[in-house]
Amino acid sequence: MSDQKSLTGGAAENAAEVVEIDRFQACQRAERLPVLKTYKLFIDGQFPRTESGRYYPVTDPQGQPLANICQASRKDLRNSVSAARKAFSSWSERSAYNRGQIVYRIAEMLEGRRKQFIDELQSQGSNAKNAAREVDASVDRLIYYAGWSDKYQQVFSTVNPVNSSHFNFSVPEPMGVVTIVAPPESSLAGLVSCTAPVIVGGNSCVVLASEQKPLCAVTFSEVLHSADLPAGVINILTGKTSELISHLASHMDVNAIAYYGDMIEELKTIQTHASLNIKRVIEGKKLDWLEDTSQDPYQITAFQETKTTWHPIGQ
Predict the structure, then answer these.
(1) CA distance 46 to 40
(2) Alpha-carbon span 109 to 99, nearest angstrom
(3) What single-letter DSSP state applies at residue 272?
(4) Using CB atoms within 10 A as the burial measure, which of 210, 231, 262, 276 is most buried?
(5) What is the pLDDT of residues 209-244, one digit of tens each?
(6) Strand (E) or helix (H) holding 173
(7) Distances in Å between the alpha carbon of 177 and those of 86, 199, 207, 284?
(8) Residue 174 — left, alpha, or beta (φ > 0 → left; ψ -120 to 50 → alpha)?
(9) Full-prediction pTM beyond 0.90?
């Protein structure tokens, strides 16, 4: 009988211990802080942290933290431009058809991660319908420019009439390294729409992503890393636009800068600093990036230089 009581008492003690353990675990779950992802930079095909060690938090529309974003420095920008310059020669020498194949491959990889991008867009304030529409528009935009890759030179080249015994013809050629200030209001479609025509035309680029909505830009760099795009052709930075914009415009190894923001003072800063080496400034129009009206082959030629060749004929 005493043995039975001791067994009963032991079972009660075990049950009490289980209850205490469950209560302790529940408290731990209630007090646990989430581990936020730190989104890194994309430079020369790699994912380094900023050399400055700085970051800034990004929150959802309700103020809840979403992620930690690397705050790029001037040195990160210099590294990106060096990587872009190194990649430019081999990228511009590839056949136009091959560049189109690679851009199409990026579209394929983006389509494969469609749900992830939709989730990120929703976390930044977009509703489900608009998020899905933005991802689809981004995929379609890449395919559109991939199709133009081996055609725009034929369309925009010319044979010029001259009053001498020469052939005279003009052909668009890539400019070199382009820096891009991506649209601040568009996390994905705007970034893709600004970047695709630059690289299709044989340029390499450094992109400063949207400061307030940077998540999809960094995830897009993961797509680029897993596609066939050579390292350094596209480099993506995150950080404070006000801090980096003058350096983007004044870097002496940059051939052009495209600005898709809406701040007059930022544009003036770009124009002033760009004059130091007479780099071209492309002022992007405020477009609806989800509409087909935001895509056209003139977006490619905006980042081209015209090379005219004279060739003698006759004896």
Answers:
(1) 9
(2) 16
(3) H
(4) 210
(5) 999 999 999 999 999 999 989 999 999 999 999 999
(6) strand 166-174
(7) 10, 10, 11, 17
(8) beta
(9) no
245-257: per-residue pLDDT in tens? Answer: 999 999 999 999 9
At which residue do the structure tokens 């981004």 appear?
Answer: 138
Phi, then psi, of 151 in degrees rounded to 5? -125, -30
Specify the length of the chain in residues.
Answer: 315
Q: Are 260 and 284 in contact (CB under 8 A)?
A: yes
Q: Which helix (H) or strand (E) holds 66?
A: strand 65-70
The residue type of 14 is N
Alpha-carbon distance 261 to 284, whole Å?
A: 8
Angle, to 10 degrees, between the axis of helix 215-226 and the axis of helix 114-123?
160
Nearest to 214 by CA among 246, 245, 243, 181: 181
